Amino acid sequence: QVELAESGGGLVQAGGSLRLSCVVYARTFSDYVMAWFRQAPGQQREWVAVITSGHSTNYADYVKGRFTVSRDNAKSMLYLQMNDLNGEDTAVYYCAAKRIYINDYEYWGQGTQVTVSS
Questions:
Q1: What is the DSSP annotation of 52-95?
Q2: Which of 55, 62, 70, 85 is the most buried (most CB within 10 A)?
Q3: Is it the case that residue 83 has pLDDT exceeding 90?
Q4: β-pairing, 46-51 with 32-39?
């Protein structure tokens, strides 16, 4: 069984920064591809960023250049550094995990709220 728990959300002014963390309880953290998703009120959940166990990354266009995903395999931690935040980044942010050969994300955290005020 794999469990994930996000932290680090909060209220921030536009132009500010936040760093989200996700602790992963798994037998072998490095077996998993990790990703961040977000869901704004009344919107569908959308993908934000992904990182492989080898630290290859990819980002959605709407966060590219502002957000940075990273992981510490030794600590079983996933991070999302968010800079230059704007109102459209307001959402509940979720971390998710899947094994590399599985199409869909298998495990999800409970989410952490990020609110950007103008």
A1: -TT--EEE-TTTTTTEEEEEETTTTEEEEEE-S--GGG-EEEEE
A2: 85
A3: yes
A4: antiparallel
Single out the residue of 79, 74, 21, 91 nearest to residue 51, CA to CA.
79
Distance CA(100)–CA(77), nearest Å, equals 17
pLDDT tens for residues 32-55?
999 999 999 999 999 999 999 999
Q: What is the pLDDT of residue 80?
A: 98
The set of long-range contacts for 46-51, using a CB threshold of 8 Å and a minimum separation of 24, is 48/80, 48/93, 49/80, 51/78
Residue 1 pLDDT more than 90?
Answer: no
Amino acid letter, 76 = S
Nearest-10 Cα torsion for 116, 60, 98, 55? -100
CA-only gyration radius of the chain, Å = 13
